[in-house]
Structures are given as structure tokens and as C-alpha cells.
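User: For my dataset I need records formatted as: sequence, then C-alpha cells, nothing else. Please produce one.
Assistant:
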Amino acid sequence: MADFANTDAQGKGNITGSGLAILGFDPNTKSTSRFTIFVNIWVPGKMAPTEFPIEIALLNGMNNLVQIPGPNGGQPLRVAQVAQVERAQGPFSSQIKDHVGTRAQVIIDFGNGLPLTPGEIYSWRVEIDGDDSVTRLYPFAVVGTPPGPVFG
């Protein structure tokens, strides 16, 4: 997670505020502060070209899918897509291409935050090809508005 991320024309990730693990909460909008998810998956050069499914899901502290408000009531926050990666291009040897490999990147920006509960803990689960051995969790927490000053 980061404050913001994008990919430039050369496919490089540009990340601001990487390592974000605590999100603020705005009681006026009832949403967290803005944040971006940046997933960077390295694929060995010998496996490219290839394609594989990636799923990114939001879990609560009990590792259950988080339900967010949707047009038909609550729905789990889960995004899935097929990533396609090509073999590294350029005038390099096969040994270099195999060593360097290639990458699949997924960026999801939550410019308006998410309607999560302050004081709760959450995790993003990234799963590749439905394989538990390559599943990764990214834990974070949502904190409420800090108390105002006390006078007297």
C-alpha cells in the first residue's frame, strides 16, 4: 500500500509513500484516507510469455472477506484479472533475459478511500493462480480521528 502509485510509459512503477500500514478515517465522509495498492509480481524469464490469474481481496481481522456497500447491498471487495507477461525485450542475451525475468503489475487506486471501520485491522490478500503457496498478506489498520485538545 502507498499514498499513490502509477506506472510510467516504460512500465516502471512510481510509488509515493510506500509501506503505508495505517489509514486515517474521516468521520465526515465515513471513509478512510486515500490510498493505492501496488502489486509487483516477478516472473522468471524461462516462464515467459505466460498469463495467470491474480486475485486481490480485502480480509478483516478474522480473515473473512470484507463486505462493502454496493448497488445490491453488501458485496465482497475482491478484484480478479488475468495478467499477461512477455519475455524481456531488447538486445540482451537469453541468459540475461532469463535472469532478469519480467513483471506483472497491478495498481488499484482508492482515491476516495473505503468505508471501513475505524479501530479494526485488515489485510489485503494477493493470490496468484489460486495457489496458496504463492498467496501473500499485507496487514494494515484503520484508526479513528485523533481526539482534540483538552483545555482546563
